[in-house]
């Protein structure tokens, strides 16, 4: 569908929603999920800084800024808000462990929350907890509704445009505007300024064998969103229809492949963001049903890795993209390639009984036991497994040395909306991530962080709260 400036006012409606939504207006389910998403983001960012391959490069980048009013969560380094937003988001993307809409596969909180937190800290806003809770809801909803707008136009395979990053510029600008108390007009200027920066394709994220793109894209849209809000605050103008206009984001990047209705239908009363997934393991969401199926077979039939003669996966079009090319997926040359590999993830699950945060680094990727198992994993394309509207199912077949063969299919993996993770599940994940990264952080301090997020609207000292995350940084 195409539209022009005379038929679309979706940007103005989104700006009005973002400007007027208050924390007290949120349904309890929405408020709880936003808090859950924040706790999840903080834990994976701190873990990502410690174990991620790009951490040293990000540290060098941050050091060029010369200090500022916002913090890099895992280290306590000070930086300008846009720089802190970029680095914190990149740390949170290092492990591909953050929340996501399952179809279209669009990451949510990581694309805007680091910017909102950095702006809140730099501006030293009053009632930061209430402002952040409202900003989390605004950013989540705009990101999710933009995803819904393109869902019907997507084909069965991987898209060219990187919607998570493209949409993140707008959701980050809106979340930052919410923190700063923008009215609807100032919010619309911020969205327009964000649209002027929006960019991103899948090339450096999925197809390039050695690239930091998978890690950086959320950082870039957080940086752009923060800058857009600050430019709007300074009085720079960009008043138009950045989402639905004749040269708006949707027409420019998804021509003839979007619908405007999902952007505003039930806006403020029905929350699309409740459809997002939380990840119980790192790595691409496409791999999760396959890992769960492999683990189920190992447990059910009491198999050991030495029992396995062959492994075969039946995959849909998205799964095929995460199994090919064979050399990159079976022996990934980078952490990003490993996180995008179903064979590598399944090999880890079969050998170790889990996929963990330490399984993607350079040393882990040279483990000959894992590489030999990954080399045994074949795949076959089954076009009937294409799943418009959801994640493709995972089918795993295992052949054993005694001649037995077993098969398991997982249609909905743990963490998807039909099998959701609870706040307590995310709290347990947070503890695992924090203790991995900060072993000297006391149980009491960890409990205080979790308790503060549970009652986020009561938070009145953002600096003290964030300081707990980096207090034991080495």
**What would CATH call the architecture of the largest domain?**
Orthogonal Bundle
**Mean pLDDT across every amino acid position:** 94
| Count of individual helical segments | 21
CATH class of the largest domain: Mainly Alpha
**Major sheet, described briefly?**
4 strands, mixed
Q: Helical proportion?
A: 40-55%
Which fold does the CATH topology of the largest domain refer to?
2-methylcitrate dehydratase PrpD
Span of the ends, CA to CA: 53 Å
The structural class is: alpha+beta
**Could you say how many structural domains there are in total?**
2
Strands, total number: 9
Identify low-pLDDT runs.
1-7
Write down the Rg.
22 Å
What amount of the residues lies in strands? Answer: 5-15%
**Helix/strand order:** HHHEEHEEHHHHHHHHEHEHHHHHEEEHHH
The CATH superfamily of the largest domain is identified as: 2-methylcitrate dehydratase PrpD
**Tertiary shape:** globular
**Major sheet: arrangement of strands:** 7-6-8-9
Question: In brief, what are we looking at here?
Answer:
With 474 residues, the protein is of the alpha+beta class.
Structural description of this entry:
- With 474 residues, this protein is α+β, with helices and mostly antiparallel strands.
- It has two domains: 10-277, 2-methylcitrate dehydratase PrpD (Orthogonal Bundle); 285-410, 60s Ribosomal Protein L30, Chain: A (2-Layer Sandwich), CATH 3.30.1330.
- Helix content is 51%, strand content 8%.
- It has helices spanning 10-20, 28-51, 55-63, 81-93, 113-123, 128-151, 163-180, 184-195, 203-207, 213-233, 249-253, 261-264, 288-300, 317-321, 326-330, 335-339, 342-352, 368-375, 423-437, 443-454, 462-470, and strands spanning 70-71, 78-79, 100-102, 105-107, 276-277, 308-315, 377-381, 394-400, 405-410.
- The strands form three sheets. Strands 7-6-8-9 form a four-stranded mixed sheet.
- A hairpin with a 6-residue loop joins strand 1 (70-71) and strand 2.
- The model is unreliable at 1-7 (pLDDT under 50).
């Amino acid at each position: 569908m195409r539209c022009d400036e005379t038929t679309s006012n979706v940007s103005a409606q989104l700006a009005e929603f973002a400007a007027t939504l208050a924390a007290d207006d949120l349904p309890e389910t929405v408020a709880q999920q936003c808090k859950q998403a924040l706790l999840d983001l903080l834990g994976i960012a701190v873990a990502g800084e410690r174990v991620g391959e790009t951490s040293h490069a990000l540290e060098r980048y941050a050091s060029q800024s010369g200090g500022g009013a916002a913090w890099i969560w895992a280290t306590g380094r000070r930086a300008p808000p846009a720089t802190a937003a970029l680095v914190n988001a990149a740390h949170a993307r290092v492990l591909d462990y953050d929340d996501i809409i399952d179809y279209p596969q669009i990451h949510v909180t990581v694309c805007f929350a680091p910017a909102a937190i950095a702006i809140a800290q730099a501006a030293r806003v009053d009632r930061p907890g209430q402002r952040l809770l409202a900003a989390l809801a605004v950013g989540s909803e705009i990101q999710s509704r933009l995803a819904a707008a393109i869902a019907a136009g997507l084909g069965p395979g991987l898209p060219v445009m990187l919607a998570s990053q493209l949409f993140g510029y707008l959701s980050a600008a809106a979340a930052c505007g919410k923190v700063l108390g923008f009215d609807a007009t100032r919010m619309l200027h911020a969205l327009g300024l964000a649209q002027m920066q929006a960019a991103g394709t899948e090339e450096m994220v999925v197809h390039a064998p050695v690239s930091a793109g998978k890690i950086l894209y959320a950082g870039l849209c957080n940086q752009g969103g923060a800058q857009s809000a600050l430019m709007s605050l300074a009085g720079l103008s960009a008043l138009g229809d950045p989402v639905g206009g004749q040269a708006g984001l949707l027409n420019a990047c998804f021509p003839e492949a979007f619908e405007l209705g999902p952007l505003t239908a039930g806006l403020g009363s029905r929350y699309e963001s409740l459809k997002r997934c939380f990840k119980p393991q790192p790595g691409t969401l496409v791999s999760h049903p396959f890992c769960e199926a492999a683990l189920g077979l190992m447990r059910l039939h009491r198999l050991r890795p030495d029992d396995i003669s062959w492994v075969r996966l039946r995959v849909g079009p998205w799964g095929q993209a995460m199994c090919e090319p064979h050399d990159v997926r079976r022996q990934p040359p980078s952490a990003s390639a490993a996180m995008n590999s179903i064979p590598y993830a399944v090999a880890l699950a079969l050998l170790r009984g889990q996929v963990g945060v330490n399984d993607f680094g350079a040393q882990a990727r040279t483990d000959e036991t894992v590489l030999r198992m990954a080399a045994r994993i074949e795949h076959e394309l089954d076009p009937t497994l294409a799943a418009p509207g959801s994640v493709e199912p995972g089918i795993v077949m295992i052949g054993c040395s005694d001649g037995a063969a077993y098969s398991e299919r997982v249609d909905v993996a743990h963490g998807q909306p039909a099998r959701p993770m609870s706040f307590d599940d995310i709290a347990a994940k947070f503890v695992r991530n924090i203790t991995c990264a900060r072993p000297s952080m006391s149980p009491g301090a960890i409990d205080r962080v979790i308790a503060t997020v549970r009652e986020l609207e009561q938070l009145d000292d953002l600096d003290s709260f964030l300081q707990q995350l980096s207090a034991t940084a080495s």
